[in-house]
Amino acid sequence: NMMRVAVIGGEGIGPEVTAQASRVLAWFSERRRLPVEVAEAEFGLEAYRRTGKVIPPETRAAIEGADAILFGATGGPETAEVPPEARREGSLLKLRRSLDLYANLRPIVTDPALYDSAPLKERVLNGVDFVIVRELSSGIYFGEPRGIESRPDGSRRGFNTNSYTSEEIRRVARFAFELARSRRGRLCSVDKANVMEASVLWREEVIALHADEFPDIKLSHMYVDNAAMQIVRAPSQFDVMVTDNIFGDILSDCAAMAAGSLGMLPSASLGPADAQGRRTALYEPVHGSAPDIAGRGIANPLGSILSVAMMLRLTLGRPDDAILLERAVGDALAHGARTADIAEPGRAPVSTAAMGDAVLASLDRL
Ligand code: NAI
Ligand code: MG
Question: Which residues bind Mg(2+) (predicted)?
C-alpha cells in the first residue's frame, strides 16, 4: 500500500535543503522499494504571489491527503510583501495547531567525525544522544488573550498569555515517558515552576503521571535557565527532555551546537494516534529560512535529510532504512563532506547539492 508524502519546501533555504531530502527519499523509493508517492506543494511567498494565499487550497489538499509531510522552512524579510493577515492565516504555527501536532521531537546526536571541528571539546560532546520533546500546540505562542494595546497615556502594551491545561501537559509528558522507556529510561522535565503558574501545573502533572503510569522511569526536574547551561556544559547527561513550547524552541537551538550546527538537527511533529496507532506527522529541520544565506546553495541539508530518517522510522515503518540513512550521513561526514556551517578552517566547504551527493554516494556504498 502506497504511502503519500507531501513535500513543501517553503521559503528561504527551505526549498534548497528539501530538494536534497527529496533526492534521498527518491533513492529509498527506487533502491529499497519504499512504496511512497511524493506530491510537491507550494507554501509561502511564491504561493501568495500566484494565488493570494500563503497556503493555497491545493497545498491544504496535499497536506490532508498525506501520510507524512516533509516541510522546509518559512519566513524572512523577503516576505514583507505578504500582508500580516495573510501571513497569520498561512502561518506554520497555525498549521501545526490545526493538525494538532502536539509532540515535537528534536534528537541531538553528535557525530564523532565532527569532534575536531565542533566548538566544544570531545570531552564534553562524547556520547551526546538525547531527544528534546517540545510541546508544540499550546503555551505562550497560542494563549489568549494576546495583543498590542494602546493605553490612555499614549504608550502601548504588548502581551501574551502562557496557558497549559492538565490534559495538554499529560499527553506530551506521556509521549516523552514512553520515548524514555524505549531509550535509556531517563526523563528530565524542564520548567520554570519557581516563577510561572503554568510551570507549577506542568511539574505537578508530570509528577502525578510518573507515579501513576511510569514508576520505572527515572524522572528529574530542571529549571529552564539551568537547563540551558547544562546543555552547553554537559549535554551527554540527558536522555529525553520534555518541555513546553517556548522553552523547547529556545533550548533546541541551544542544543544544536552539541551537534555542530543548527543545520544538522531534524525534527518530527506528531499529532494524536488514531485507532491504528497512526499519527499525523510533519517532518522538518529545526532551523528556519536563514535569509542570510538563502539562494546561495550553501545551506546544510542534513537536518532535512535526517528528518527523512525520522519519517522512515516513525511513519513509513522502515526502522532499518532509518538506521541506514543515519549511517550514510555519518559516513558522508567521515569522508570529509562539510557545508560551510560545519567546515574546518582552511578547508573548502561543499555546496548544499554536493552534500546531498555525498549522502547518496554513501547510501550506494553501504
Ligand atoms: P534560522 O534558523 O533561519 O537561522 C539562524 C542562523 O543559523 C542563521 O545564521 C542561518 O544562516 C543559520 N542556519 C540555519 N539553518 C542553516 C542550515 N541549514 N545551514 C547552514 N546554516 C544555517 O533563524 P532566524 O534567522 O532567527 O530566522 C529566519 C526566519 O526563519 C524568520 O522569519 C523566522 O521566523 C523563521 N523561522 C522559521 C522556522 C520554521 O520554518 N520552522 C523556524 C525558525 C525560524
Ligand atoms: Mg526555533
Answer: 225, 249, 253
Instruction: Write the pLDDT tens digit of every residue in 278-336.
Output: 999 999 999 999 999 999 999 999 999 999 999 999 999 999 999 999 999 999 999 99
Rounded distance between C-alpha atoms, residue 333 and residue 341, angstroms: 13
Task: Provide the CATH number for the domain formed by 1-106+265-366 in this structure.
Answer: 3.40.718.10
Q: What is the pLDDT of residues 194-252, one digit of tens each?
A: 999 999 999 999 999 999 999 999 999 999 999 999 998 889 999 999 999 999 999 99
Catalytic (active site) residue 192: yes
Predicted structure pTM score: 0.92
The answer to whether the peptide bond before residue 57 is cis (omega within 30 degrees of 0) is no
Is 111 designated active site?
Answer: no
Q: What one-character DSSP code corresponds to residue 340?
A: G
ipTM score for this prediction:
0.98
Distance CA 179, CA 189 (A): 13
Owner of C-alpha cell 497560542: 142
Per-domain residue ranges of the chain: 1-106+265-366, 119-259
Give the separation between CA 130 and CA 140, rounded to whole angstroms: 25
Choice from 93, 287, 329 to test ligand 1 binding pocket (greatest atom count within 8 A of CB): 287
Let me know: does 173 contact 138? Beta carbons within 8 Å. no
CA distances from 104 to 137, 280, 289, 365 (A): 9, 12, 19, 32
Preceding omega of 35 cis (within 30 degrees of 0): no
Here the cell at position 218 is 527515572
Matching fold, domains 1-106+265-366 and 119-259: yes
Residue 341, ligand 1, Cβ within 6 A: yes
Largest CA distance in the chain: 69
- Asked: is 119-259 a CATH 3.40.718.10 domain? The reply is yes
Q: How far from 215 is each of 158, 205, 224, CA to CA, in Å?
A: 42, 14, 24
